[in-house]
From TrEMBL:
Annotated protein name in UniProt: Fucosyltransferase
Gene3D superfamilies: Glycosyl transferase family 10, C-terminal domain
Membrane topology field: Single-pass type II membrane protein
Pathway in which this enzyme or protein is active: Protein modification; protein glycosylation
Ranges of residues in domain Fucosyltransferase C-terminal: 219-388
Length: 395
């Protein structure tokens, strides 16, 4: 989608993608700030001094950044990030162990119960080391499985040698083992198989969750969002804190997004990604601030082309590209955060610095985050089953 003239600043994703969009354009006048941008440290390639130069065309801002900073200086200042260093061991190695540890060349997984597992994961995969992986919800196609995957139901209490390995997945913040599984899948690197919320499959499966559940407005998130939104003009789509005249007002605001939707009767959430691409910033608030619990709320905002303002996992920087996310928890107050966002929105060079990773091809940790996402789960789980010997694994 071509970059459009942007007339607003931010979006808040609440449960199942309720949006709050902070809107301010180059037309609006904000008090000038005498302090420099707090997140531009001495290693930043752009100037710490912030000039007031309100802009509504991001392409013009990018051109200015290209001429004043450029990719060569950005890469030089982000050498460590380019290598994708993860300071806290937050991500597993997607390549796993050596091929010599694999005991099976074909693994069959039967999915028994699910909510987070989309139908389009079903396939026969060609994995590393010449191994193949059949992932299916059909007991006919996978009639002799090497592993059973449970998510909404609890695995059997006991397993004998010769029976499929029991796999249990919990992607919620609390991530509790069932106590009956042989292999545990969750979002943390300490678990048997890690699965992040990054990747395309969470995007493809988004509308399934919206149609199946009503939008949930949580008081903690609403209070946090409102404390910032009271300081900045904004749009709010969805059920929570709506201020645009109804749930589907975005359909008339961005008709070109409706034309891109395949839905017979499109709703506001059917073109969420397109609508978000019109805004400079996106405010993504997690259910809880838990280590490594970085959900699709952030990644969907990031992938739309906006700059996320994030409240959630304290180690969020381990999962995202360098200089791509504003961590709201690092500010002393909402007033300080709001002032920073306003100044950033008035400085085309400083704002463009948050897009430099994308323009210069510097993915950093984000490459590893996507490499262990739901998109790659089938092969990575099958490799773990193969290493353990499948049905021949001991008990």
């Amino acid at each position: 989608m071509p970059m459009r003239h942007l007339n607003a600043i931010a979006t808040l994703l609440i449960m199942f993608f309720t949006l709050l969009i902070l809107s301010f354009t180059g037309i609006l006048e904000f008090p000038s700030a005498s302090t420099s941008l707090p997140h531009h440290d001495s290693s930043s390639s752009s100037s710490d001094a912030v000039s007031s130069d309100p802009f509504g065309d991001v392409l013009v801002a990018f051109r200015k950044w290209d001429s004043e900073v450029g990719c060569a200086r950005f890469r030089e200042s982000r050498k460590a990030s380019i290598r994708g260093n993860v300071s806290s061991g937050a991500l597993q190695d997607s390549d796993g162990s050596g091929c010599g540890e694999l005991k099976m060349d074909h693994v069959r997984v039967l999915v028994k119960g699910w909510t987070w597992v989309p139908d389009n994961l079903e396939n026969l995969y060609s994995c590393r080391c010449g191994m193949t992986c059949l992932w299916s919800k059909s007991p006919v196609l996978s009639d002799s499985p090497d592993a059973l995957l449970f998510e909404t139901t609890t695995p059997p209490l006991q397993r004998r040698v010769g029976e499929p390995l029991r796999v249990y997945m919990d992607l919620e913040a609390g991530r509790k083992r069932s106590g009956r599984e042989d292999i545990f899948i969750s979002y943390h690197a300490k678990d048997d198989v890690q699965t992040t919320y990054a990747g395309a499959l969470f995007h493809n499966n988004r509308n399934y969750h919206i149609s199946a559940h009503k939008t949930i407005c949580l008081s903690r998130r609403d209070r946090l969002a409102k404390s910032l939104l009271d300081l900045i003009p904004h749009h709010s789509f969805g059920k929570c804190l709506n201020n645009v005249g109804g749930l589907n007002s975005a359909l008339s605001m961005y008709p070109e997004c409706v034309s891109e939707s395949n839905a017979a009767e499109p709703k506001w959430y059917d073109h969420l990604h397109c609508a978000m691409s019109h805004y400079k910033f996106v405010l993504a608030v997690e259910n809880t601030a838990t280590e490594s619990y970085v959900t699709e709320k952030l990644f969907y905002a990031l992938d739309s082309g906006s700059v996320p303002i994030y409240f959630g996992a304290p180690n969020v920087q381990d999962f995202v590209p360098p200089n791509s996310v504003i961590d709201g928890s690092k500010f002393a107050s909402m007033k300080e955060l709001a002032a920073y966002v306003k100044r950033l929105g008035d400085d085309p060079v400083a704002y463009s610095e948050y897009h430099a990773w994308r323009r210069c091809g510097v993915v950093g940790n984000y490459g590893r985050t996507r490499a262990v996402s739901l998109d790659t789960l089938p092969c990575r789980l099958c490799e773990e089953v193969s290493r353990r010997g499948g049905k021949n694994a001991g008990v």
